[in-house]
């Protein structure tokens, strides 16, 4: 059996920037153990798999796997999947809709840009952060918050975000949890910066995290009083995102750089 494989860099203003994702279009679903094994073999932050379906509200069923687990939401691999369909596989409609564990998500063409539609998940105050979180970040933030499976720490400056050197072993005790850290940007034209850590799901630091912006965008839109925002994720690869809060949805856009196209051979 041969499975098509596309690998692209998402939210990247250059090749080898942003967040790499593998995308595997399937004719039908393979066993979950095989999907997870492919995710582990690819060893990228996410491998996305999709199967065509003809539902009233969706065009494809989409799933995402890290090297160790299946996840409930992944933004950059969803944008990657939309890019593959719209730019490489001849999808002719301006929008492609995916049924996922987090509801129906879409990727839509607007001029030269592709926009990803995700749910908004505003963070709420966290009264008692777990010990693993405090030990893992090592530096106390101004505020602790939480939303769903993600902890959220607000710092005072971009320099503090850059300087963070987490204890990943401590953060890994937060099984199934991610950690978003953020601060106002100091550079011109950028509203906020962030980083994202999730060793508990096999990703010590994610380079450019669409799902984290489900929290970041409503937080910064409320704080800055604006729905349109520019963001940078301060990983070694650097992620750049245009953001918009649209009611209860978050819209994200950023460049996609193709890296490879090939085939996976299964026995």
Write structural notes for this entry.
- This protein has 267 residues and is of the alpha+beta class.
- It folds into 2 domains: 2-119 and 252-265, Diaminopimelate Epimerase, Chain A, domain 1, CATH 3.10.310; 124-247, Diaminopimelate Epimerase, Chain A, domain 1 (Roll), CATH 3.10.310.
- It is 20% helix and 42% strand.
- The chain is built from 6 helices and 18 strands.
- The protein has helices at residues 32-42, 75-87, 131-137, 158-163, 168-171, 213-224, and strands at 2-10, 19-26, 46-52, 60-65, 70-71, 95-100, 103-110, 113-119, 124-125, 143-147, 150-154, 178-184, 192-198, 203-206, 228-233, 239-246, 249-253, 256-265.
- It has an 18-stranded mixed sheet that branches.
- A hairpin with a 2-residue loop joins strand 16 and strand 17 (249-253).
- The longest helix has 13 residues, at 75-87.
- It is globular and about 50 Å long.
- The relative contact order is 0.19.
Average predicted confidence as pLDDT: 97
CATH architectural type of the largest domain:
Roll
SSE-based structural type: alpha+beta
Radius of gyration: 18 Å
Count of beta strands? 18
Total number of domains:
2
Which homologous superfamily in CATH is the superfamily of the largest domain?
Diaminopimelate Epimerase, Chain A, domain 1
CATH class of the largest domain: Alpha Beta
Biggest sheet, in brief?
Answer: 18 strands, mixed
Key features of this structure:
18-stranded mixed sheet, Diaminopimelate Epimerase, Chain A, domain 1, alpha+beta, 2 domains, globular, 267 residues
Summarize the structure.
The protein is an alpha+beta fold and 267 residues long.
């Amino acid at each position: 059996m041969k499975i098509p494989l596309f690998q692209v860099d998402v939210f990247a203003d250059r090749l080898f920037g942003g967040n790499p994702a593998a995308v595997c279009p399937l004719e039908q679903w393979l066993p979950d153990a095989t999907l997870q094994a492919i995710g582990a073999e690819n060893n990228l932050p996410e491998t996305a798999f999709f199967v065509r379906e003809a539902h009233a509200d969706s065009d494809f069923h989409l799933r995402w796997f890290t090297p160790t687990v299946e996840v409930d939401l992944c933004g950059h691999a969803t944008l990657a999947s939309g890019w593959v369909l719209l730019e490489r596989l001849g999808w002719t409609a301006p929008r492609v809709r995916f049924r996922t564990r987090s509801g129906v998500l879409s990727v839509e063409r607007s001029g030269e840009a592709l926009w990803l539609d995700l749910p908004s998940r505003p963070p709420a105050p966290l009264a008692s952060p777990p010990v693993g979180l405090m030990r893992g970040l090592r530096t106390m933030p101004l505020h602790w918050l939480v939303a769903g499976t993600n902890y959220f720490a607000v710092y005072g400056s971009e320099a503090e975000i850059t300087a963070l050197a987490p204890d990943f072993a401590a953060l890994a005790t937060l099984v199934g949890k991610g950690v978003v850290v953020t601060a106002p940007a100091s550079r011109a034209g950028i509203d906020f910066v962030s980083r994202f850590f999730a060793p508990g799901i096999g990703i010590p630091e994610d380079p450019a995290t669409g799902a984290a912006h489900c929290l970041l965008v409503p937080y910064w839109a409320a704080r800055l009083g604006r729905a349109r925002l520019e963001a940078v994720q301060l990983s070694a690869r650097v992620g750049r995102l245009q953001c918009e809060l649209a009611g209860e949805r978050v819209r994200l856009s950023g460049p996609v750089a193709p890296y490879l196209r090939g085939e996976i051979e299964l026995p």
